[in-house]
Each structure stands twice: as structure tokens, then as C-alpha cells.
Design a protein that fits this description.
nine-stranded mixed beta sheet; 21 strands; alpha+beta; Conserved hypothetical protein from pyrococcus furiosus pfu- 392566-001, domain 2; six-stranded antiparallel beta sheet; Conserved hypothetical protein from pyrococcus furiosus pfu- 392566-001, ParB domain; globular
Length: 433
Amino acid sequence: MVKIKGFKGIIYNKEKLSNLDDVMSPPYDIISKELQDELYEKNNYNFVKLILNKIKDTDNEKDNRYTRSKELYLKWLKENVLFKSDEEAIYPYKISYNLNGTKKTMNGFFCLLQLDHEYRFVKAHERTLSKPKADRLNLLRETKSNLEPIQLLYIDDEDIIRKKIDENIDSLISDVKGYDGFNHKLWKITDSNLINMIKDFLDERILFIADGHHRYQTAINYSEEMSNKTGIKDKDAPFNYRLVILANIFDEGLSILPTHRLIKMNNYDLKKNINKLKKYFDIRKIEINKDHDNISKKIMKDIETKDEHKFALYTGNEYYIFTLLDEKAMDEFSSDRSKTWKTLDVSILHKIILEYGFGINQENLEDHIRYTREDEEAIKFVDKNKFDLSFLMNSTKIEELKIIAEAGEHMPQKSTYFLPKMLSGLVIYKMEF
């Protein structure tokens, strides 16, 4: 069963800081080296110093990015820059933003979620990779806190929870402009009756991980580690809960954007690769002017489709439009998968184009592929020779995510990019045990 509860959140002290905008951070996994530097310069108390402290050449077992995060975290608590609430609460959260000329508002709330080690009630749609899990586990061991939330979705056809929360929210805790230009607002609700109503509503529901697969599995790994270390087997132990943001899967403020693939390969024969793929795709080559403008928009327009499977391969001098000839082709590569999985664009891209066509499989994936949600970056990084090729694609539909997760299947890595991204620094869960 799904079990949630309120918690005594740790937040920034507005009396100590003149502008909360300056101390907030993007999630750790989308922070580039350049953005990390920028956030470091922005404010001495920027949250990036806790979630993604800089690596130094002198790092060792006793002094490293994780121990420095812990030292700063404890220092900020001691200085009352961060302070802990004396009441258990849930924290309603709204993000207002503009996407392609349309104004949207995502509605959710922070709470604690009891970990489901077997993924019976919490469904994942992506596999996790070893490096990110090891990184987050090291930070968790030092801070004994969930510094960032993960986002999960529940099904609420009548939007009951959101309506009840909106009836009960009062004064704002924080109202900040994020790194993304979006407006992030946070409230606090301590009403035990309302919290219990939400708890009962979600009791027999299924939750779907939208963002934070690595952090959720890391929480499970940490829970097992702490249980063995302390001998505590109680399911209600603090380390058996995880800080999450819950949102209705039908919330109109949720958007899924495509995640494009950036390819780095030492040796490849593009002509040979393309000829190999002509068995399964109609492939159209389009020459471009080197000093092109808005080429990413043109490419995304070219792969727009209602019911076909289209992809674009960008090389720098030209791009290729791949259109799948027949969905049955996926039977050759994934006969054991469901029909929904086999008709996902991201599955077709990985199984036929990347694995069959370019030899990039699950074993060497991390060596050759990086990701970006920015159409322009998929072009710019190839033009600047940071990557050899890029594949641009359309986004996964939320209905597909739901079906895949319910069936216990996993999409290829980085199949979804939810917008808006949660802001880091709004509220923290510190484990006390």
C-alpha cells in the first residue's frame, strides 16, 4: 500500500537572506559545469553547494565534495540560515510557466513517502545507471537528508486532492523566480484531518515515478544499508521514507518534452550505418547551409507526425529524416516486449537505430550517449565538435508512460523529460534516528 505522511521540513530563513531567488538551484542532474560556476558566484548560500559541491584535485576520503556538503549543511543549520519547522506538515507547491505561448500551472505537494522496495505500488518506467546512484548515495550517507525531492504521479480523475489543498492553503512560505524563469510558490499545511484525507485517498493507489528514478533507488539502497547497520527493521524508521512531490497525472500543468541523444563515437562509418538502416526506414537526406539559422526548429517541424515514427540524425553538414516503414520490424529486436513498448519512439530509436545501426547497446551506452532536451543544443554541440552526431526525436506521451509502468516494463534511459522541473532548495527532509 502507498503510505504518505507530513514532516518537519527544513527551509531557508527569509530573515537571513535578502532574496530567495539567489539561493535556489536547478536539480543536480541538469547542472552543467558552467551553470555550477554561475550559481557558486550568485550567492554564498546557493543550494548548489549542498547538492553538487565542486570537485577538487585534492579530494580524498576525508575531504571531498560530499563531506564539504555536509559541513556547509550543518553550518547553515547552526547559523539559522536553514531552520527546521516544529510542526509536521505537507507543503503545497505550484509552478507557473509559459510553454510555446501557453500559460500553465503545475500543482503538487511535498510529503514523505514510505519506500516500496519491491516496486509494487511505486512504478518505475526507466532503468537506473550505476554512476548516478553511487554519487547520490555518497551524498545521502554524509548529510542523512533528502536535499532534493523526486516527483511521482497519482491518478485522480476528479482532481479531489488538488481542490482540497487549494481550499486550505493560506500564507506563502516562499515565492521565487527559478533559474528557468518560472514562478515557484510554496505553502505549508499542518491540518491533520486534511493530511489524513489525502493519506486515505492514496492508500490503495499506484504511483508513477516521473522524475528521480536514480534517487528513488538510491533511497532504497540507503534504507537497506542503514537497516543492516543499525539493526532497525521498523518500516516506519526515518530512513524508510523519501521526500517526494506528488502531482495528479492528469494535471494540465504537466508537460513532457523530448530528450534528444548526443552521440560520441571514435570510429563509425556513417554511410555504412545509414545503408544498414534502409531495411527498416525511409531515409531522406537534407543538405543545409553551414551558417544556418533556426535549423533545429526546421528539423523538429520535419519530424512532426501524428501516427508515424520519425527521427532526425544531425551531422553538422546535413541531416537525415528517418521514418519507420513498418512497426512489425520491432518484433525482430524485442519479441518479448509488449506492443506498447515496441511502438514507443524511444524504443525504436534505441533498439533499431542505435543498437542495430550504430552498435550502441546497454553495455556501452554511458560511453557514447549524453542527453539534452534543448533542440538548439542538439545542433550546437555537434557544430562545436563536442559530439559527433545527434538524434532529435518527438516526446513520449503520458498515456504510454502509464501503460509501461503498470506493466512493470522499463523504457530506455532518459525516455521522458517532464516540465516544469522541480526547484531545489525549497524544503529539505532531515532524518532523525
